[in-house]
Amino acid sequence: MRWRASIGLAVGDGPVSSIVESDHGSEGSAREWIEHKLPRARFPAWIPPARRADGVELFGRVARGRVVTGRLVPTWESDTGTAVWHADRAGDHVQWRRCPAGER
What we know:
There is one protein chain. Helix content is 14%, strand content 50%. The chain is built from 2 helices and 6 strands, in the order ββααββββ. Strands 1, 2, 3, 4, 5 and 6 form a 6-stranded antiparallel beta sheet that branches.
């Protein structure tokens, strides 16, 4: 099992896409990565500045799971029974909340 830290893009209440991901051996390491990267993260260039005021947000997520190989493209599968950490930017720091698996 690994811990995946990701910074994603959300519109309203729903995630749209992941911008960058990093796999870690521990939950603490994954959360530290988010705390370092998320406050400095920038919107992708394909999102014009005018759209950023329309509820588009960057967020962090830490989930436990594994990479499944043996397929055409290796894929990430979250551990469905494990809660997920979500992080929101709050100035130059991160606010964490723990959510049941499967929630944003």
